[in-house]
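Same chain as my last thread, 640 residues:
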Amino acid sequence: MPITSPTPSIAVVGAGPRAVGWLERFAAARSAAAERPPVIIHLIDPFPAGPGRIWRHDQSPLLKLNSMAEDVTMFTDDSCTVDGPVAPGPSLLEWVEGVREGSIRDASIDDDAVGAELARLRRGHFPTRRLQSRYLDWFLRRAIAALDADATVVRRTGEVVAVSTADDGEAVRLADGTVIRADAVVYALGHTGSEPSGEAAAFAVFADRHSLHYQPPAFTADADLSGIPAGETVAVRGMGLAAVDLIVLLTEGRGGRFERHGDGMRYRPSGREPRILIGSRRGVPYRSKISSALVGEAPSLRHLAPEVVARLTRDPGTLDFRRDVWPLVERELLHGYYRELFTGHPERVAVAWERFRAELDTVDLRSAAYRDLLAASLPDRSDHLHLDAFDRPLAGERFASRDALQRRLREHLRDDLHRRTAPEHSETLGLFLALLQTMFALAPVGASPAWTDESRTRDLHGWWPAYFSYVASGPPGHRLEELLALSDAGIVEFAGADLIVTADERARAFRVSSPSVEGSVLTRTLVDAWLPAAHADRTDNRALRDLAVSGAGSFRHGMLRVHPDDARVLDAAGAPHPRRWAIGPFTDAPFAGAFARPGTNALSFRENDRVAQAVHRLIADRAATHSATSPGTSAVLSLQ
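reply #2:
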């Protein structure tokens, strides 16, 4: 029978940071509206509303953000180009200071370790995920408080398994059998897991057959590491943030201690650690977070102006990132790096910035002329930037022994730490800011029909965000200091670049090798240390799988297709669904994090605002055409 409800309602599938960011924008939309009809908003998630799965309090206190506290906010500010009113609020650092000083009194700090961290955290510190969890919990309660009296928020701990369309709305079914009638559905699922496939599935079968341990891609905080015994060699593929978290849990998480020793660190083992053999395609970790300050001219784009981007995206199906866009991005990155070096540290250059820039704009970046330009302009060769070598620092290098490879990696880590943290090397910040501005410039056209299918898959949802993360989203500097200490202690061994892992049936073990060094290593334990890919046909999220199976949503290369204007879910014919929206990393919209750096006109805040405005208009239209008949009737029904 038809599911009816007297009060307009919204089902938000997922209640993590992206969902509550949308809720704040919905409250802002209602605050500016002439009509504010009654509405019920259901926040549905098996994990705690606010933090969600990734940022929930229930995880190791050793795990941290890879952003400094002052670089994290959930609030819009004057930089944001949104239709709804801007509603400023504190960054994570400002919130900490407010709680500490007593100007913010409604924070929920129910953990002694978080309380101690809050007391000592300062600018430049990297907060724990548990502290971020408290900030997100507070933000959710503030967003709810910002709603008018006619809006009701219902938090539901549960999993959405299916959504079907009824005559008068959407029927949202939960795993426990509850059905919620909704006029609008907002999918805000965040990062979803996936079932192993391809090589991962084959490795899982191989491991099961020979009683080995294989951990496929997973959220590190959720991975079961108890099966990795002390003293055994564990091979780790991947050297990004998930791998850093894994190493923390397998070392300090097992009772080891890091101690300051002069200018570096020393690791004191507990005896319960495994030996960690780690490698990846690059063979080196993500670049360290930058802690230096800008000294020279303010950053600005030079080659990717809006009119250039508009020209590139003019013709459908023709745009290739590597061929058409990367050459411009490359010049932007070099321009940002050298501008800060020349204008901020003139004592290290031999020619005027204007002269150097004029030649840099036109020189072939892979030619002898570029190398000659650098040699004539920059006396110190270590100031020369070659982006290919920066991306693949071990490319072409072969080492006579594993010890030689370890020395090379430790040298690389020390150099990266120095150049990303020392005040005299703020040119690395110039590079970072140029990359950030480039990402912002390209984000609005991520869903453009101009991209070829191959480039969209290979580059926009593959190589480009991975490159951005390598340069701009690496671990805090102290994590690389810890990695050095673990290497010195013999706990961590670097395996090299272009890592090769095979299932050796004869040896009944995983065989690990790299072209960087002769020989191979056999191990009974393998961990793939990266997040599961967001792919509809392998997802473990039943709400997302339902969109694929039911045909209500269509997918491109495993990503849910959404309309670029307001993120409505698109069906197989490309038509927008009248009552469903989707925001987050599982969609084909340009990737945008749930929170952002202050003052950056965050893409996620703009998308949240557009969706909030659209949902508000739908609710207002529904209220105008359907008068409430039974104010006391619940909007939640049970399956019979």
